[in-house]
Structures
1.
Amino acid sequence: MNAFGKRSSVAVVLLGMACAGRADARMIPGSDCQESSKACTCADAPYMELFLKNQQVALDAWKTTRNDIAVNGGASTFEDARASFAQNFHGDARVLTPLAICKDLDTAKIAGPDFLGDGAEVDDCFCTNVCRDIVDGVIAHERTHVAVNIVGIDYMIGVGIGCKVGSFPQQFCDTSNALLLSESEVLAHTVGNNLLSSRLNDLQASDPENPEMECTWEPLPAAQQAAPPPQAPQGFFQRVQMLAQRFLHGAQR
Ligand SMILES: [Zn+2]
């Protein structure tokens, strides 16, 4: 296959990831979602904390998934990686409580990357039933996927050539798609979680409804055990992370 053919086929595979979030007719652009959401107040803090903790558990599950694929192989497609994640992730069902009002919500399709629009699309009922800092974190997550996929396309071309000429180990070549999705999820969760965490800190320092007051709330009881700590990233991850960071910083004003 020539370089152009390789580029087209890889692009199609990567763009296929967006389709999962596109099937629902009630998906709206990220910027519309931000506009329709309400600002977070002290009263939202316990749920924000719960949502963040759940996303941190998801991040750990993606790191476990990624490291397991890198060490043990056994996953070659995006679907394989998602199936592995589903086994590693034990979510907190309490995150769905405020969304019970959303009768048609598909909890597997709350948000997705939007490659041709503003980078993210989000379920409109989610947008109006969680506060804006959570929405912003979800949108940052999806936009990170777009950034990773853009650098990932070039990276996968490089992997394709390296695998073709036999310069990479076979297990790495067999697992590169699953690794790319896992790494994309690790980065997206990291970016989204960091944003929500810093907003929660800001909220704690000052209650928007009483700016002179600190915002305090009862810590939530633990719902589950956290995943084991992740291992150090290997060269593959460092390279994709470096490219993604460069893209993200370049994309910012
Ligand atoms: Zn994601």
Note: The chain has a mean pLDDT of 80.
2.
Amino acid sequence: MSAAVGIGLLAVALALLPAIADRLALRFGASPVAVLAVALLALLGLAAIPVALALWLASGARAGAVPESVALLVLALVCGRAVARATAARRRLRQIGLAASALARVRGDGVGVLPCAEPLAFTVANRTFVSEGLLAALGGDQEEAVLFHERAHLRARHGRLAAFAATLRAGLFGLPPARRAADLLQAELEVHADRVAARELGDGQPVAQALERLGDDEEVRRRLLRLGQRGGLVGRTVVVALLVALGGGLVATVCLSGGQRLAIVGAIACLVGVFAFAWFLVPLLQEERR
Ligand SMILES: [Zn+2]
């Protein structure tokens, strides 16, 4: 099997992975961390594919078929777009944080209350903000559920994982498979925060009631369904096996598709992948074990 076929098959597997994980999670229940790991692997793998293809075209079996400068241009385009997106997102977040801080009245518990009728709750620059509209819509238990949810985002550092996913998605020009993986990742970050809030309250009811009061769209319905699930057949063992198989497949494909340079790139990709998983997912696991 040629390297191109290997890379192509891997791309198809990675593109299908988020949709399959989403369906299995909704049907059988699964740990949000496990689903997040699958979504992250899909994004990392999809991001590695243009790199593998560019290097293979430039220096692999088809040496000379494509000038190296073309491959480098593709890489520069992907990386440039990702960096530009990350910089813009960071700037926007800082502006939102500054604007919210300027408008909000800070309560005794450190929460900023925004004078706004729309029900809002978000955490930016290490501070949680809620709107007057949200406080008016929720009872005491439900307000507490929202605050526990926001604190879970903060403690488990969900923001940096979401930003990383958005950067990869932008680097891949928002292609449908990358969009699907990033959307699943975002949805499961909410599920993770909901479940942590439910555990800390010792009861899932206030979280569910707060969700029901704040919306009735598809995202809310998904979160309510995932909140009601416990454990499930798609356990972490299955997911770990899947991650090892696909991660190994990815690295092997990259390494076997060309010469020494690709082997070095494969080793670097492997290290980056392991580091990314540890950096992003360990805080989530710690949050679950608290
Ligand atoms: Zn949230």
Note: The CA atoms of residues 36 and 185 lie 5 Å apart.
